[in-house]
Amino acid sequence: MSAFPHLFAPARIGRLTLRNRLVLTGHGTGMGRDGGPDARMIAYYAARAAGGVGLIMLGSQQVHPTSPGITGLLTCYDDAAIPRLAKLAEAVHAHGARIFGYLSHMGSATTARPVALWSASAVHEQKYGEAAHAMDAAEIAEIVTAFAAAARRNLAAGMDGIEVHCGHGLLLQQFLSPLTNRRSDSYGGSLENRARFPAEVLAAVRAAIGAEVPFGIRFSADELIEGGLDAAEMRRIVPLLVKAGALDYLDVSAGNDGDLVSNMLHEPPMGLPPAPFADLARAIRAVAPGVSVIHGTRIPDTALADQLIAEGATDFVGMCRPLIADPELPAKAMQGRGDAVTPCVACEQACFGRLFRGRHISCVGNPRTGREAEWPAETPAAMPRHVVVIGGGPAGMEAALVAARRGHRVTLVEAQNAFGGLLRLAATAPTRGEWAQLIAHKAAMLEQAGVAVQLGRVADAALLAALAPDDVVLATGAAPGRGDIAGADQPWVFTPDQVIRGEGPRGGRVAVIDLEDRMPAAATALALHQAGCAVTIVTRSPLVGQRLEIQNFTFMMREFFRRGIEQLPHHACTALEQPGTLLLRNAYTGAMRRAAGFDAAVIAAPGVARPPPAGIVVTHVVGDA
Asked: Which candidate, 124, 261, 106, places its Cα nearest to that of 179?
């Protein structure tokens, strides 16, 4: 019997039987090209089908040219989409999974157009800030027809079901929400009027696909914005939409992508708890009897997924980021190999972070994600060699693991008495503890792969001569930098590493000088605050933490304001003067001024690569080394 009997039991959505209750929910991948799936995207979804997931929701397809396909979004404007979608559906079906087409219109929640976007009213949202055009009756009818046509194309391509996006601040939610619907006609005002356009879309789609095809919606059960759709109102709206589309299932989410805090809450980063909206799913399930419920917001593992089904919160569990991290999660869990599952630690760095930079998604714990076509499963080396990896941080552990899986004899040498390098230190910082899960996982995989490990051992020429490797991989990382700041070597000046290790100031007024605009300074500021310090973060950039992924940025900003951590952007620190004085240069005017009264300063600067040990010939360099 499976350790997760509820999650891995077959179940039905409408008339379709799925092999289990685990769903890869719809998400952007950044992989499509020219509005359609490319080889990279097909390989990505095929890998997750092969890994045992029951149902895949394809990334959203834009149904009309007024909703541009940016950052790899798919489009389904015309019949040219059919053959490309068919290749993807065929690849998924080959591994026994089912796949649904996922249809949407961004409304005002997009960019990259030279004319006004279409929405319920002439509004704009926080993320993109582009003005929208209030749709007239003819345009509403045009979009209704477009949704129905896109649904037919998906069925022609072999999709097993259809999902329509009614949430996350996109067009249909823009009509539903009083925040964005300011109309005075039959599509605005009352709850029933605001639901009219989405209901018309759902009725048209159901008419186009027939009664046999599984059909549902994804929606936000709470907009998570003051004055927006709340849980009580959505419990009244959902039955109207179920009736309009004769829906078979409800994919329950939350939030609005156009609001920074709402977006952060429904795509929770590290530091926020798991399954924050399970109660919303449970409440929706109560007002939609006989309709299957899918729910997935930061459900990190199969144990919690099985528990939510057993408790009646949901019928199916969506696991998006965990399946990005490990496509074989279902198969490993069913086989009792949970320790082999690459954990999602919600760092956001290579999934959302890459997507928002216009690149395809990947995963810091699994670099093969998004590169399945380029990097298939490890193939045995033609001639096994002895590989010595110097350094047991993330890069060294990954290099050793890949080499061992290819059949090489691998020795990993680490000077410290534990794995992880600086990531192990980072895991001790406030709100960053989940990094420890990734380190523990990689360490367990090294043991399973048969890597010979020497912890607490410095790799020197004598040791390497004794080991007699064929190849040497240098993965010794970087030492803390202090930037080009005069006076940085004074005793009242620290590095983030010292602060996180507990060797920094305790109390007093502290300046964190951020030369990276990333997590080290942010986490250091939280640690200093916990140590009783009054903290000011100084950066020459327009925003403190501006290079953080958007969810991490919002999370940290909220923490800063809640804790009273001050921010001083637009200023470069050029020198540290005694006693406790910063010499600052305005980033725009060059004007100089002094900020005095600090008891300590911390410089968060890019690291400096450590040189290879003397007398050792290095054949490969990985990570920050």
From this structure: 124
Any idea what the CATH number is for the domain that residue 410 is in? Answer: 3.40.50.720
Structure tokens at 278: 């399970």
466 part of a folded domain: yes
What tens digit of pLDDT does each residue of 486-499 get?
999 999 999 999 99
The residue segments making up the domain with residue 506 are 481-609
Instruction: Say whether both 430 and 293 belong to one domain.
Output: no
Between the CA of residue 262 and those of 238, 578, 593, what are the distances in Å?
20, 44, 38
Q: What are phi and psi of 374, to 5 degrees?
A: -85, -40
- Are 110 and 178 in the same domain? yes
Verify cis geometry, omega within 30 degrees of 0, for the bond prior to 367. Answer: no
Quickly state the pLDDT bin for 69 (edges 50, 70, 90): low
Structure pTM?
0.96
Token pair belonging to 601: 């300063």
Can you give 96-138 as a three-state secondary structure string? CCEEEEEEECCCCCCCCCCCCEEECCCCCCCCCCCCEEECCHH
Can you give the CATH number for the domain in which 545 is found? 3.50.50.60
CA distances 7 to 4, 108, 277, 304, 308, Å, are 6, 37, 18, 10, 9
Contact 319, 23 (CB under 8 A): yes
